[in-house]
Fold:
Amino acid sequence: MLQFVSDWAYGKFGIVGAVVLFVIGLAALIKGGDWFVDGSVGIAKKFRVPELLIGATIVSIGTTLPEVMVSATGAAKGMGDIAYGNAIGSVICNTALIAAVTVAVRPALVNKKALSLPVACFFIAAVFYACIAYFAGYFSRIVGIILLAMFVVYMVVTVIHAKKHPEEAEEEEAGGKELSTPKSIILLIIGAALIAVGANFLVDNGTVIAKALNVPDTVIALTFVALGTSLPELVTAITSLIKGHGALSLGNVIGANIFNIVLVCGTAITIKPFALPDGKLIGGMNASLVVDLPVMFLVMGLLTLPALISGKLKRWQGLTLLLIYAGFVALQFIGG
Structure:
């Protein structure tokens, strides 16, 4: 049905119709993710689940659901380029744009002990993922299962660590209005439905736009789709910045990046394995190997390693990351 709507809009209005549905898909993803998280938290609170565990599990997964659905939908439709590009592009966008803005505007102190676990988990997962890309060039179903297993292990370790070290947890804002159970369930269902619809519109029409502009699917996924699915993290970062909790946004970004590797990629690969995208070359070499993956490691290292050493986020980090992101996006549309 959704594919029919996309085909009809493109047949009737051309590229304009595809762009409109692409924007509608983005809006549905953002609002759907927002409602899904609200509903999940409402239900969890009703069952007296500690807020610490809610933040470490439900909310983190909820803000990553747009990426999960877009990559899973892309993989299921045989569009491995979209599945791959969205996950890697979201990590780069989260780090070099979203976190960079908060650091550039308001640098903050960070808890080195609390930061060390998620940073270590990210690089372990990212190194495994990169090794598959460089040495195999094909993401088999067993790779997807291993990534999902890493996701489960990370969640368990995070919950255990949070229980043992409650002093490391960020204080949550008080005073939020508690939702009734029926309203929470309704928000949960509608949010999930909006995410599914938005993901389909984003993948279908993003592909149409890419073909109309003669741009590889991977480029669209690494830039426009990645930015769109990262909007929940952007909203969280801006809210944290306004409230003076710059370090909180850093934790959210790193958590989302871990989920992009182990949950988003793991789900997409398990549904339908795919080869490393080769639609774009730079200097005669696969752009994913010489640009996308190296940039992902570069921006995460630049954001986290100085913070782990000094316990501070500094303005030069944010400004440098923003420059790297601008260069990365520009490079996506050069050559081919």
